[in-house]
Amino acid sequence: MNLGLEGKSVVVLASSKGLGKATAHLFAEEGAHVFIASRNESELEKTKNEIQKETGNAHVHYQVCDITNPDSIKQLIAKAAAKHGTIDILVNNAGGPPAGLFDDFDDDAWQNAFELNLLSFVRAIREALPYMKKQQSGHIVNITSSSIKQTLDNLILSNTFRAGIVGLAKSLSQELAADNILINTIGPGRIATDRVTSLDQITAKKQNMDPDEQRKKSEQSIPMQRYGEPDEFAKMVVFLCSQANTYVTGQTLVVDGGLVKAL
Ligand code: NAP
Asked: Quick check: pTM over 0.90?
């Protein structure tokens, strides 16, 4: 199957580490022109150099971008479009909101999670759409969480705003299909990244357990008996954004080794 990604202009938000980085890496392997973006410049530079070296793709660039800042998103998309001629593919991703229960959060915490995990995606889509509409083609994928199918304990902020992304993407899939722009939402189950390690540490502390023991217990709760690798997640994002995907839009799917039991 030809993914047809050679020379395509891709922007991946929140991509110096974890799922965003793995996704950018795979796009680069496929010959796409990739912009990575997050807040820490030295991490970005390290990641860009690593991806260039491992893939042999010189068309990997970075831009410092705090996705909670609308001007920062505007600058990122404009810069990527100026460098690569257009925006063909947008992968929306973000850092995770803090873990906690309803009583743990005041209005500021809710507002911050809204800006980080929902409004940032709206803003990035708004900036990328004119390029996609002009060329009458585009692919957008939103990275969220398995909570789009089944809520997660102690993650009320994530559970709330990820559901908002599902509504946004389904609505947009209806509005944008006539322009040949496809938009889908993918939820990771437990993929081995820093975020999952830090959530495991929080759980281990709460339950007075050793973090390694906690991880083992968590892996055993997954039908595939292990955490996923970032690359296994990235493959699904890259397929949905490829030229091989011409008809899947408005869908919500999880990459979770069988973890979610909801239909
Ligand atoms: P991660 O390893 O912690 O990486 C997060 C990335 O986001 C980093 O590159 C970070 O770089 C960047 N970032 C954070 N805040 C940002 C901001 N305001 N502006 C721009 N970039 C920002 O996380 P991950 O595991 O890859 O997770 C990615 C997303 O998937 C998160 O929303 C997470 O909650 C969700 N998720 C992941 C899993 C999983 O199994 N890994 C499961 C469920 C949901 P800087 O800090 O340098 O900006």
From this structure: yes
